[in-house]
Every structure is written in structure tokens, then in C-alpha cells.
């Protein structure tokens, strides 16, 4: 699954650690999601959407 | 840097400490049971009870890991820990089969149980470290 997490994070000038703190997860989790090695659960995806004030489908897409 | 002790959450630190404590207890009870059986220090019924003693800390370790996994809020870390435990379990089972073939006569009975715990813990820990390194 592709995502725009890195772009959204960069737009706000946050580091991976900053985003991890806001999500209450490890920096490794953020890195794994950004690189597409780990797909977050729905609760975490909703948390991301709320944090970036956008819809889940604007962050994640199932396009190959 | 990998998850250093400073980076660990209180739940991770507490669970790790408890797990380590019960791991040492497991090894000690295994060794004590093995020595008691080998030297026939007690009557047969008491020896059977002593042989069962290591099951208590092993059960405690399973409980600690289960409780940790239930309370871990970071789903990625939870996945890594689960995968590492499966690696540990798999390698232990394979090692046990190999050990059983090498010591077919049963001469290593008791000792192999101690090695099982060692192999499981070392493999699971190594798998966790490798996976965390890959996740950097």
C-alpha cells in the first residue's frame, strides 16, 4: 500500500521522531509505514488522518 | 541506534526485567532438578515433583510475554516481538529434533530442556535485534 506520510510530515517540518511522539508509537513504526514495509491498523490510520486533518484515502492508496 | 535501555517504555523495561528474572529462575530450577534426579537425592515421588518445578517459571514467562503483548500499544513493535517469538519457537523445535536424533539413547534428558530455554531466548532476542536494525 502506498502512502503520502513522508510528504505530509515534511510539509509540517516534523521529524519521524516528532510524528512518532504525536502518534504514541516508536520512530521505527513511522519509518516502517513510510517505507511501505508495514501497513497500519485502521485505528492508527484514523489517528494519522485526524493528526493531518485529512481523509484516510488522502494518505493511503491501494494503487500498486 | 537500536532500542537502547533509555528508549524503552516502562512497560517494555518492566516486562524485560520480569522475563529475565524468571528466565534465570527457570535455568536454576532446571539445573537443580537435573542434579537432584542424577544424584537421586530424594525419594521417587519427591523427585517427580522437583522435576515439575521448572514448569512454574516457564508458565510465568509465558504469562509475562502474553501480558506485554496485550498491553503494547505500538502495533509495529508488537508485530516484531511476535515474529521474533515465532523464530525462537521454530528454531527451538528444530533444535530439539536434532538434539533428539543425536542423543537417541536419552542420555541428554534434562539437559536438552535447559538448552531449549537458552536456544529459544537467544534466537528470539537475535531475531528481534535483526528486525529492529532493519526497521531503522
Description:
The complex is a heterodimer of chains A (64) and B (136). Chain A is 59% helix and 6% strand. By secondary structure, chain A is mainly α. Chain A has one domain (2-54): 434 Repressor (Amino-terminal Domain), CATH 1.10.260.40. A two-stranded antiparallel sheet of chain A has the order 1-2. In chain A, helix 2 (16-23) packs across helix 3. Chain A starts with a strand and ends with a strand. The relative contact order of chain A is 0.22. The mean pLDDT of chain A is 92. Chain B is 79% helix and 0% strand. Chain B contains 5 helices and no strands. The radius of gyration of chain B is 17 Å and the shape is globular. Chains A and B meet through helix 3 of A and helix 4 of B.
Short summary:
The complex is a heterodimer of chains A (64) and B (136). Chain A has 64 residues and is mostly helical.
Instruction: Give a count of the beta strands of chain B, DSSP E runs of length 2 or more.
Output: 0
Rg of chain B, Cα atoms, Å: 17 Å
Secondary structure: helix percent of chain B? over 70%
Q: Which quaternary structure do these chains form?
A: heterodimer
Amino acid at each position: 500500500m502506498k502512502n503520502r506520510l513522508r510528504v505530509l510530515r515534511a510539509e509540517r517540518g516534523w521529524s519521524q521522531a516528532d510524528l512518532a511522539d504525536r502518534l504514541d508509537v516508536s520512530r521505527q513504526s513511522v519509518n516502517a509505514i513510510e517505507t511501505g514495509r508495514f501497513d497500519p491498523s485502521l485505528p492508527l490510520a484514523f489517528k494519522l488522518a485526524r493528526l493531518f486533518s485529512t481523509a484516510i484515502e488522502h494518505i493511503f492508496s491501494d494503487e500498486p | 541506534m537500536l532500542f537502547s535501555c533509555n528508549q524503552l517504555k516502562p512497560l517494555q523495561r518492566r516486562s524485560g526485567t520480569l522475563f529475565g528474572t524468571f528466565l534465570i529462575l527457570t535455568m536454576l530450577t532446571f539445573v537443580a532438578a537435573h542434579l537432584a534426579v542424577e544424584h537421586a537425592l530424594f525419594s521417587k515421588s519427591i523427585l517427580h515433583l522437583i522435576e515439575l518445578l521448572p514448569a512454574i517459571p516457564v508458565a510465568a514467562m509465558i504469562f509475562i510475554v502474553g501480558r506485554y503483548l496485550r498491553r503494547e500499544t505500538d502495533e509495529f513493535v508488537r508485530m516484531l516481538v511476535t515474529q521474533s517469538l515465532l523464530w525462537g519457537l521454530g528454531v527451538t523445535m528444530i533444535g530439539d529434533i536434532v538434539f533428539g536424533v543425536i542423543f537417541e539413547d536419552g542420555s541428554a534428558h534434562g539437559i536438552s530442556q535447559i538448552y531449549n530455554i537458552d536456544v529459544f531466548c537467544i534466537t528470539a532476542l537475535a531475531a528481534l535485534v535483526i528486525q529492529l536494525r532493519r526497521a531503522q
